[in-house]
Amino acid sequence: MRLFFLAQPLFSPDGKSLIMPRSVSDSLISQKPTNEAELLAEAKAQFAIVINLAMQRLDAGKDLPEMTRWLIGQLHDIRQKAGPEVWQMLVPIIQAHPSAQVLQQCPFTRWSFEKPRGYSGDAGLIDFIYGHEAVAEEVAKSTPVGLQIFEYTINAPGPVAVRERRDILTRYVDETAARTASDTEILAIAAGHLREAEASTALSKGEIKRWVALDQDPQSIGSIMRQFKGTSVDPIDGSVRGLLTGKHQLGTFDLIYAAGLYDYLSDKVAIKLTQICVEMLKPGGVFLFANFSDEMSDDGYMESYMNWELLQRSEADMWRIVNASAGVDTVDARVWFGTNRNIIYSTTKKLP
User: Radius of gyration over alpha carbons of the chain, in Å?
Assistant: First the structure.
């Protein structure tokens, strides 16, 4: 399991949020290498070479999408070689470099870094990846340089995997509706703007009895209420902690899923939440959760210039959560990768 950035409390002062900036690195390796200063000096030198070349290409203004692709790859390599402790120290150096002001002309990069909703990976940020009309005005305000950088950042492997994730969720919803007829009940945890519902054939045909969209962000809840008014979508202003403590009594479901949430949860919380979700399944129901994998290649750019902190998991990490959550009433647990292996998935089925 690969962890990012500086430790912060798991819960926010309001006692609800689990998705907070810099909240995912409580388990960082505590033993520092004896040659830490040398490793940092080496990482700084590598970054200096890379960013000087990148700035030359930025100044020339030629093929900035390709320059961005190259820079993202170089930052991934630097992060891999530096290790988590040294990378922690390098991130603020990168963020303070003049190149940050240039790269943050990209609307996707800038939104992530500034965190207008107060936390990483918010639904507005994901809308940039989707190319959704909700962020069209924000994109239109960008500089020509920013738009060229944006042309690649939303087509890097991570965003490509996120778009596939949305389509996978839609498919699972529609397949569940086909399996359970008109009695289908679905729960989306940390639902964001519920964009996967936009393409759902089952929802458009009225084949879903109840689709609960749980999210702690009132802006996301408001968006869902406006867009899906008059449908079976039921937006609920609620938190993950509410699920963990039994505050939310939502009933049982044929499909429960958490798309981006587990990227910010420690193993302990992830295991507990998985157990609760499986308990909330109807017989034959399925729980799905997704996580950015430890094979993703955008990590260095995301954590530095985008200030987007994530917890990446390997296949073994995912199985550890699944196995620790398994009960006598579960069957057919699976762990599998998306097409480009940047996102990894788990599904657990409850015995009929």
Answer: 21
